[in-house]
Predict the 3D structure of the following.
Amino acid sequence: MNEEPRKRRAGGRAGNKLRAGTAVIDQMPWRIPVNPDAPVEPLDAEGVLRIHKTAMRILKEIGIEFLNPEAVEHLRRAGCRVDGTNVRMDEEFVMEMLSKAPSEFTITPRNPERELVIGGKHMVFVNVSSPPNAWDMERGKRSGDFETFKEFMKLTQYFNCIHIAGGYPVEPIDIHPSVRHLDCLYEKLTLTDKVVHAYSLGAERVEDVMEMTRIAGGLSEEEFRAKPRMYTNINSVSPLKHDFPMLDGAMRLARRGQPVVVTPFTLAGAMAPVTMAGAVALSLAEALAAIALLQYIAPGCPVAIGTFTSNVDMKSGAPAFGTPEYMRATQMTGQLVRFYKLPLRSSGVCAANVPDGQAMWETSNSLWAAVQSRTNMVYHAAGWLEGGLIASPEKFVMDCEVLQMIQRYFEEATFATTDEDLAFDAIREVGAGGHYFGCQHTQDRYTTAFYAPFVSDWRNYEAWQQGGSVWTPERAHRIYRQILEEFEAPEMNGDHAEELRRFVARRKQEGGAPTDF
Amino acid sequence: MNEEPRKRRAGGRAGNKLRAGTAVIDQMPWRIPVNPDAPVEPLDAEGVLRIHKTAMRILKEIGIEFLNPEAVEHLRRAGCRVDGTNVRMDEEFVMEMLSKAPSEFTITPRNPERELVIGGKHMVFVNVSSPPNAWDMERGKRSGDFETFKEFMKLTQYFNCIHIAGGYPVEPIDIHPSVRHLDCLYEKLTLTDKVVHAYSLGAERVEDVMEMTRIAGGLSEEEFRAKPRMYTNINSVSPLKHDFPMLDGAMRLARRGQPVVVTPFTLAGAMAPVTMAGAVALSLAEALAAIALLQYIAPGCPVAIGTFTSNVDMKSGAPAFGTPEYMRATQMTGQLVRFYKLPLRSSGVCAANVPDGQAMWETSNSLWAAVQSRTNMVYHAAGWLEGGLIASPEKFVMDCEVLQMIQRYFEEATFATTDEDLAFDAIREVGAGGHYFGCQHTQDRYTTAFYAPFVSDWRNYEAWQQGGSVWTPERAHRIYRQILEEFEAPEMNGDHAEELRRFVARRKQEGGAPTDF
């Protein structure tokens, strides 16, 4: 264990308050955004029902492969038809299980002021998760390592618009897989005070993360189980398959009352039908099957459905993101997930290799689709490139500007119609041909009336040119470097920190987790 | 008159058919997009009414300055209260005048296959209009000139997703203002066969453009008047003022049955209240005043309301675009304009100086706001930078990718739920763990199932790197250069072309238009 980060953290500011960040940028305060818009609904009621019925037919007539004997045994006991690993379930069972799931739940990390609401109109943002590689303007593309992992954790903590320290922003391949989760979670839990996530990649890893989360929060086992403290996200092996470790991890979390997000990766034309409604139906069938299992073994456990339905490039078969088809799939999934009364996860994604125009129109498309589908949890909301193969700090900073704009877009002030907003008196006062810069109505509101960007440059061309003609990614790069320089880790109770270090040391001595699966 | 373009045009392909473009890129065919989405409506019914009532109070209690004696005289006769240039009108009069305006109309350019529908759920895209400057990757920023003007006209014609050759993409300052409109319209009418626009900048200019449009279409005066053939867009001088030439041009068009779009430029915090609802109310009052005038002098003439309500930068007072406040203002205006049963114009805009990430997130925000507000006519949909001070060909190409994605997003195929779309049989056929690349359901649809981009690069990083690591603006630059090289102008009837040239020559000899206003 590298002790160096600890020393740096010892200089952290006192108090448990949510800092608005250092002086690097003037960012919006921490909040849980609430999406006031009616969702965009491409499907009519019949369309919703047709996708639902198709998902039910898939579950009943084709069935799902559960590559986990324990899961199969549970489902057999629940009355599902089992044939080897194939499990068929009928609508009645699925809907009964769904009725047990909460439509909304909280997750409370070690800093209770960072508690999140998942569901309803709430929308939270997760850092980029799971790219094997990093890219930045200075170093180009390279494999993920632990130092880069920590850089992204600092960005995750720094930005108030990022609510969750999700999966590893990059895979730190310089740490042995057997102990990687220990080092990574240690950094996650000490460099951030936000909700953390566990990969469902084997019993030991999952249990270690739950235990570390419990320790970091200074919780008894009873307190830990009492409400959601962290979560996992599992993917099916589309089409129609759930693998052993994902199901194992999901069941472990469900039993301890911790949330499970089930996110099939159904790429239309590859592992799902080439037609979007079919890809959505397949995705839902896979998600519902796992959720039915979890509600059977732990009735009422918090769950959410994730959508990762996109399409391939027609020429190469490569995955594409932020496409029109992606947007519609996300909206349709949103409609069905509301029909099932569950929280929804989607993503902020693109296929671009560098943080340029394409990256931002694809990411904007996917983020607006998240808004339109009333997504509750936006994965990869900051930092994602190359279809998830690259995490980029410049993209992280740029995405946070878009996320902040979405947060501001949600604020009622932007569409309020009180007398003060309608400003009739100011309009009469200024009259024809005047200007509003000086009037009292403006003076009273000027500093907070509009969104203030931190990476966008709104100067005119000549001023921008005099400032060095700096394009967006380079501006983002400078901000990212400065954030790292001035970063201060959040405070952590010394006893909890000590216990966490002891736990990591002990588990490392024991050899960590097996790596042979 | 430079005769060189004519020779080139003589090589144009025969036939009146709509070409899908040359082989430079594989673009979507010409179409009038129809927006199937329910609009995003931040206001409830009471909010709509509150903005409406505020607009009506502005018109009744404060009044609008009409700096055009003829307009004032019409409105006096209509029963409005006139005090010098100040005209006050009451709700009853305004609503009666509005009731005469069509909610939807067509515009038919010289090529009748390019006829447009303005209103309802239709959405058409206009090229960037009126920047004084151009910027491209090779030449940087420079003043607009005639050659650059022609370049943009070729792009406007080339892209099927651009429906209207609107205002000048750049101001060609190397052409004397007295004859500039003659040269520009000649190029517009011969390099494109799409709907054109007239600036309302003096009687002679407006009449010349109408006359040239009539000649280019080979129309009698009666045929020209019979339906919309071109249009103008007028801006108020916010707050609360309409100037002489804009009103003069608008009235000239209305009398000949040609559409007028009224677009106040209400920048919240500068020439409009700092609160968005107030800025929208002011904008609507200004637009409705002009529309009431036009409906009084030419009942039933086609009109539309444009929104250009955005906010300033709180630090510098510079205009900002594509902001959260801009989006909400556009959506709110959409609600009110539907309340008035008129077509809506908005824009594709940004404050960025170069076609980078910021440019594309700001433009995406404004274009999605156009979709969400059910905008019928999207100005500056391709090519706009620096708050409208720069037209960029790279940005033009990049924007067209986004516009095409919006067109594809509108297609029912992306959210259809027929049995074929639900693909249950294919899901059964492929089963668990298989893939969909090879199945018949995919094979039958593969080539048309998904949006195919022309400037986005969906290759992985290594393939992209081997291809030269080309970022989006550079790819767009290459496409733009190639389009210009291979451009072929649309065919034009030889007699009409000859008459057009004679008209231009004669009007130039007469001195063109006065330049002293």
